[in-house]
Amino acid sequence: MSTGCEGKSSWPELVGVEGTVAEARIERENPLVNAIIVPEGSMVTTDYRCDRVWVWINKAGIVKRVPIIG
């Protein structure tokens, strides 16, 4: 599936990893995006942006969803 965005767009290998580690890796692998750590249950804007990746973490700070551009 093409997102129309440049660079890597999905990081399934980061589920189960510490959020700050995932954030750094995402931004290293695609310097066009800003990875933003979001605690599960938080509200976020629903607009689609090629320069943003939500990194959803649980209370322990572990990534719980596949980070994707959007």
Automatic annotation (TrEMBL):
Keywords: Protease inhibitor, Serine protease inhibitor
One of the record's GO molecular function terms: serine-type endopeptidase inhibitor activity
UniProt record, GO biological process: response to wounding
A Pfam family this chain is assigned to: potato_inhibit
Keyword Transcription: no
Coiled coil, from the record: none
Family statement drawn from the similarity comment of this UniProt entry: Belongs to the protease inhibitor I13 (potato type I serine protease inhibitor) family.
Protein name: Glu S.griseus protease inhibitor
Origin species: Arachis hypogaea
